Amino acid sequence: MRIFSGIQPSGEIHIGNYLGALKQWLQLQEKNECVFCIVDLHSITVPYQTSTFKKRILEKAITYLAVGLDPKKTIIFVQSQVPEHTELSWLLSTVTSIGDLLRMTQYKEKSKKYKKQINAGLLNYPILMAADILLYQTEAVPVGKDQAQHIELTREIGRRFNQKFGQTFKIPKTFLPKKGAKIMSLTEPEKKMSKTDSPQSCIFLFEKPKMIRKKIITAQTDSGKEIKYNPSSKPGISNLLTIYSIFSDIPIAKIEKEFKGKGYKIFKEKLAELLIEKLEPFRRKKKELENQQALLEKILEDGKKRAQIIASQTMKKVRKNMGLGKI
Ligand code: AMP
Ligand code: TRP
Prior knowledge:
- The chain has 13 helices and five strands.
- Helix 8 (148-165) links the parallel strand 4 (140-142) and strand 5.
- By secondary structure, the protein is mostly helical.
- Helix 3 (53-67) packs across helix 12 (263-290), helix 4 (84-93) packs across helix 7 (120-135) and helix 7 crosses helix 8 (148-165).
- The strands form two sheets. It has a three-stranded parallel β-sheet with strand order 1-2-3. A two-stranded parallel ribbon has the order 4-5.
């Protein structure tokens, strides 16, 4: 199967990104043709720093490699280096309804947050995402739950295009992880863990052990002291149980049993230890990669070339079907 997904270079990767997306990517790369992108053009729809932007992109490339994506098996590249993404985005905008864009949850949230700087790019963001996906004739898109609505819209845009201009795109499926599709904030467990919220609310993938301990110990928990999974009445402890379960590979029911009568403190200390141990290899790998700029550049250059071969094939078909191209 052809797989496509992407992460924005804004902010630091946290365990929500890892469990919702990256962890699935690692498994998928073994048996599929995977294309994983650093979607820099999506990040510029909200205020960002130009002077550190390239560094942020390289950091994401390091992250991809540090978690174990293998550039021999997988295409890793930067979105803005393959201009077909923006070209297709414009063409797809002509089959996208404004009403659909206006009802996207992420648009509503971001336009509230950046009230004074709502630009057209923020509204059109999902069209660019549809272009990313459709350009590669993608069959499945592994993402966290917050992106499911965007992929639904991608399917709709693809279908409408195919109807209007003839069969052009494969219609992709959403691939959500069974567990961890929505990891919640440590400080406000009713909200998703988010890169753009306070650092206290996230455990970053490369977080130092001292900070992991501190953040887990002070994570918001619920009244009572039972370690019991119940997202509606105990959102804090349920989120920590989910994290524990995925990182340890132990079912939640078994963890509940193990910590029966032991209280939050002991559970949190064990969870902190588990995270410190499981995240250590990522920290180590990241350090190794940090001064290998030439290698990173080569991987991204090679990825760009491989991506462009697929992208340009699709674009030929798109232009032809739309009656565009050479006169
Ligand atoms: P972003 O940080 O918005 O570029 O998201 C990168 C990937 O991480 C996407 O597939 C998201 O769906 C996923 N993701 C982001 N936040 C979470 C979360 N709190 N829990 C699970 N997955 C998430
Ligand atoms: N919008 C996605 C996010 O915020 C990132 C993204 C851009 C993406 N293009 C994509 C994800 C294509 C999957 C496929 O997480």
